[in-house]
UniProtKB/TrEMBL annotation:
Record keywords: Signal
Name of the protein in its database record: Tripartite tricarboxylate transporter substrate binding protein
One Pfam short name: TctC
Signal sequence segment: 1-39
Naturally occurring in which organism (per UniProt): Phreatobacter aquaticus
Ion transport among keywords: no
UniProt similarity note: Belongs to the UPF0065 (bug) family.
Native organism taxonomy: Bacteria, Pseudomonadati, Pseudomonadota, Alphaproteobacteria, Hyphomicrobiales
Amino acid sequence: MISDQDHSLRRRYPMPTLSRLLAALACLAGLAGALPALAQTYPSRTITMVVPFPAGGSADTLARRIGQHLTERTGQPVVVENRPGAGGNVGTDAVAKAAPDGYTILVTPSSFAISPHLYARLAFDPLKDFVAVAEIGSIPMVVIVHPSFAARSLADLVTLAKAEPGRVSYASAGIGTTNHLAAELFKFRTGVDILHIPYRGNPLAVVDVIGGRVPVMFDFVLTGLQHVRDGKVRALATTGRTRAAVMPDVPTAIESGFADFEASTWFGVYAPAGTPQAIVDKLNAEINAVLALPIVQERLGALGVELTPGPAQQLRDRTAAEFAKWGPIIQAARIRID
């Protein structure tokens, strides 16, 4: 028996077109039914975690620790592949172009969301070419000064800098690096004029602050911690939302009266755009389970990492917020990398 609806479809579409339409609808229905099964069988082979920076850095350390436990939980190898170059853009672009099947994922710091504002030519869009999978955690920075420098608080630093515009200098690991951007954010929020002295890497910058050749630096908590303990530098404030667990006696910038100054490096896991939601959900659940392990919390906590597990939407929102936050800062500082 032919229904009125069938007659209506036949009138609207010629038979070949109708056949193709019905076949397409059947395929879609089959695909929808297959997605839960896909998540159940995933992963069935090796997952590659691409870290777009050299081995030994923070993102690499986090990826290897998480990858080890993901291997144990899933029964499939999770390997870390370092693909450095162009400030992380080479490896990131490679993941953007990878098959969206959950077997090539990106572990990267927050520079991922900032790069479009820094680089004149970028082959990927962090908001369109990726899907957020899971947030890992963040590492705050610490404002350090040479012991001979007069400032003993962040407010003192602002007072001194405003009294002599352009006379106070700060060291960074180079143009466009995290500590350079943190200092420019501080300038933007406070209206101070402090002079940027870029170095070729963080270690060289720290050496000159310890030596008293440059008085100020916005350093990473982990690298600055031992120098603070040894009395080689003095900590004025950390830059996270809460006090750093490894520096509990050092106030945050927010506590120090600078409510709109927060600059932490955070880390996240992303997959190529088009990755099925069922796979994203599976990865998110597995990574969150790894971050809940006491041994992971203990070892990453000792490195100054404040773990921030949560749903994929949490990382998606943070990526968008970071992208929006840094555009005006970088534009005002006229930072551009060719």
